[in-house]
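Lecture notes, part 5. Sequence design as translation. It can be helpful to think of inverse folding as translation between two languages: the language of shapes and the language of residues. The source text, in structure tokens, appears below.
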């Protein structure tokens, strides 16, 4: 009798488990995030959302991932996608809510998304910044003459109302003295002058033709841009002060300053150097200054809406700083044209 009872109990348990599996309501949805496709899986009990899980994404670590960590629980707790976006991760936040809505309704946009307060205060701020630096180098030419060069960095930034970088686009023009023979003294030199100027190309535009030791300049700059997303200018400067050599502008890789870092900071530094190792500030150009000036320009109203006054002011400041020497890094190194130091 006991064996029959045990068998009956087992059959009943199996039936219950089978019924639960058959009635489990799990759905998936997807949307376009900052880094590409973002996919979620939700569980529902009738009309109630009981679980939200991001099962696939390519969002930026420490920026978009903040929304991935916070928003699913917020949606489950409120049982709706009418929740606030995570500040500094608006694109990822919207992607999560859109994907959940798609899972609920079967198609994207079935339920209207209501932006959080941080998204309705005002439009993003946009600005343009520029920084110019001069350099003694790299090296000498075929006849032993000293080569001089200058770098002009351009930055276009989009910032939220708290000054956090939503996106930043940087490019840089490097011109060597061998590429510019100077302004013409007469009409005979005009053609040569025009040809030299026309041949100038930014580092970003050169793409894979401007290679560093690891990847191209464009690839490394793209990596830095993603690392800066979600940070304020002060946070970017603090990040730079912690993980970068202040003389060369490059991330630490060894030495006393590297050894003094905590294990956590060394792990963060490993993440940084896996994407980029080139200088952010130094004789090869002041990228951080250009970004800071983009934020300053955004606060003034931005060049996009107010002509080029901000850019002119940036140019005047750069010229003044260059003349009194404050923007020229005197810690020059002996380079060759093929070295990463010369290129980066």
């Amino acid at each position: 009798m006991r064996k029959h009872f045990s068998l009956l109990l087992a059959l009943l348990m199996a039936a219950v488990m089978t019924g639960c599996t058959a009635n489990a309501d799990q759905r998936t949805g997807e949307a376009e995030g900052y880094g590409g496709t973002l996919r979620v899986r939700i569980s529902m009990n009738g009309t109630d959302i009981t679980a939200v899980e991001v099962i696939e994404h390519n969002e930026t670590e420490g920026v978009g991932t903040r929304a991935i960590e916070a928003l699913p629980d917020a949606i489950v707790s409120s049982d709706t996608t009418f929740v606030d976006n995570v500040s500094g991760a608006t694109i990822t936040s919207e992607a999560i809510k859109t994907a959940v809505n798609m899972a609920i309704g079967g198609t994207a946009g079935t339920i209207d998304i209501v932006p959080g307060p941080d998204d309705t205060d005002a439009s993003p701020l946009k600005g343009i910044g520029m920084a110019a630096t001069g350099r003694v180098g790299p090296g000498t030419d075929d006849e032993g003459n000293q080569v001089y060069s200058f770098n002009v960095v351009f930055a276009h930034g989009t910032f939220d109302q708290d000054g956090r970088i939503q996106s930043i686009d940087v490019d840089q023009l490097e011109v060597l003295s061998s590429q510019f023979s100077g302004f013409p003294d007469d009409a005979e030199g005009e053609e040569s002058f025009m040809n030299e100027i026309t041949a100038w190309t930014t580092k970003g535009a050169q793409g894979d033709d401007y290679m560093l030791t690891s990847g191209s300049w464009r690839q490394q700059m793209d990596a830095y841009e993603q690392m800066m997303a979600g940070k304020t200018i002060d946070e970017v400067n603090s990040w730079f002060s912690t993980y970068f050599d202040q003389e060369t502008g490059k991330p630490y890789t060894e030495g006393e300053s590297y050894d003094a870092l905590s294990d956590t900071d060394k792990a963060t530094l490993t993440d940084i150097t896996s994407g980029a190792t080139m200088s952010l500030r130094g004789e090869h150009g002041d990228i951080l200054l250009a970004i800071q000036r983009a934020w300053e320009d955004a606060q003034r109203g931005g060049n996009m809406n107010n002509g080029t006054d901000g850019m002119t002011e940036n140019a005047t400041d750069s010229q003044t700083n260059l003349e009194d020497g404050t923007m020229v890094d005197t810690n020059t190194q002996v380079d060759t044209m093929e070295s990463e130091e010369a290129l980066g």
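The translated text above is only one of many valid answers, since several sequences can fold into similar shapes. Residues 7-22, 107-121, 304-312, 315-343 have pLDDT under 50 and may be disordered.
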